[in-house]
Amino acid sequence: MNIQAKVYLKKGREASAKRFHPWIFSGAIQSVEGNPSDGDWVEVRDAQKKTIGFGHYQKGTIAVRLLSFSEAPTESLYHDKIASALRQRVQANVVSDFTNCYRLVHGEGDGLPGLIVDVYNGVAVMQAHSTGMHRDRQRVADGIKTALGENLHSIYYKSQGTLPDKVDNEYLLGMSAVPHVAMEHGHKFYVDWEEGQKTGFFLDQRENRKLLGEMSAGKKVLNTFCYTGGFSVYALQAGAALVHSVDASEKAIALTRKNIALNGFDFNQHESTAADTFDFLKEKKEAYDLIILDPPAFAKHKDARHQAMKGYQRLNAEAMRVIKPGGIIFTFSCSQVVDRQLFYDTVVSSAIQAGRAIKVLDRLSQPADHPVSIYHPEGEYLKGLVLYVE
After folding, report:
1. 77-185, superfamily in CATH?
2. Are 227 and 252 spatial neighbours (Cβ–Cβ below 8 Å)?
């Protein structure tokens, strides 16, 4: 890697980086030797000019994302880190004969801040969240090819909405027709990475979907913000009496219907509705035994957090109001700026507002292919509660 500049930190501001936290904030920088552009590789040194690490430079609050500590990066960096990430997924039994879709690279959790790679049955969907990763995209693609070998036939680069500058989505390897069928715990799903949200599917809910299925037999289930019907398929496979799927997007509902049919269920067992969840919940008094609340991130930055908590409070209170006595609610927040305790406290206020007695049966998080570095706790973003409503 060609190091373009040296970044010197203020005295006392190197502590977190020496504990392997990968972010260098702009306020910690004393001076810069050289004139780095966004995406350049830079060396970071402390006030005594001792090397701390190397990473991608970018103007902004997070000025450097460190990919290597102490040792200068070599051309094998991406190959080595992606191979290590794959080994972890295999050891954790994420990849199996029954699951061929998983997250191969989870940013900071895999030592590659600014990079997401999801795999769907031979197709790797790559997403850059930093200019440095965008500029290194071909190196990353080469690392993916080496790690997956003959199990890979396409790489789709999808960063149009995740970078400050306009870039084109493109295939870096092969092509594949979409929607494309992938398998999760033996369930089949159509995935459209070209037009779908994020990389095409929400892989972070895999184990939570499995748990939901274990509680669904004989129940009437409501899956709100259903996207492409992941929770709905699991509930039906487990023997739910009836499942209703709701999403504001007509495209999402169309793909939900396709996924229901793909897994062999008919529309006597399932109803899908394109509607706002809050509107749908009106006049549904004691209509469901089990409700899933999996909304998009209500807050993507701290300034929006207050309004987001009002949204979470209202949503949970509405679900608590309409669920049958003895019912179960799976409720989630995927907002990184909403920590676990704040989400819990908001659900408590929802229970008070709804006037229902609530018990917490389980606390949920993201699965093993979305690892959280012990040095970067900010990587834990998915929070969930399983609630019993008396």
Report:
1. RNA methyltransferase domain (HRMD) like (3.30.750.80)
2. yes
Segments of the chain assigned to CATH 2.30.130.10: 3-69
Q: Is 334 a catalytic residue?
A: yes
Task: Tell me, rounded to whole angstroms, the distance of Cα 339 from its chain centroid.
Answer: 15
CATH number attached to the domain at 202-389: 3.40.50.150
Q: Output DSSP code: residue 379.
A: G
Q: Which sign, positive or negative, has the C-alpha torsion 284, 286, 288, 294?
A: positive
Distant-in-sequence, close-in-space partners of 31: CB < 8 Å, separation ≥ 6 = 7, 8
Return the bridge partners of 53, or none.
44, 69
Ranges of CATH 3.30.750.80 domains, the chain: 77-185
DSSP line for 234-278: HHHHTT-SEEEEEES-HHHHHHHHHHHHHTT--TTTEEEEES-HH
Average pLDDT, the chain: 95
Q: For residue 53, how far is the Cα from the chain centroid?
A: 27
Q: State if pTM tops 0.90.
A: yes
Residue of 117, 290, 308, 334 marked catalytic:
334
Strands (E), 115-195: 115-120, 123-128, 154-157, 170-173, 180-184, 187-191
The pLDDT score that the predictor gives to residue 299 is 60
DSSP 183-196: EETTEEEEE-TTTS
Q: Would you state the structure tokens that stand for residue 205, as one six-digit string?
A: 């809910």
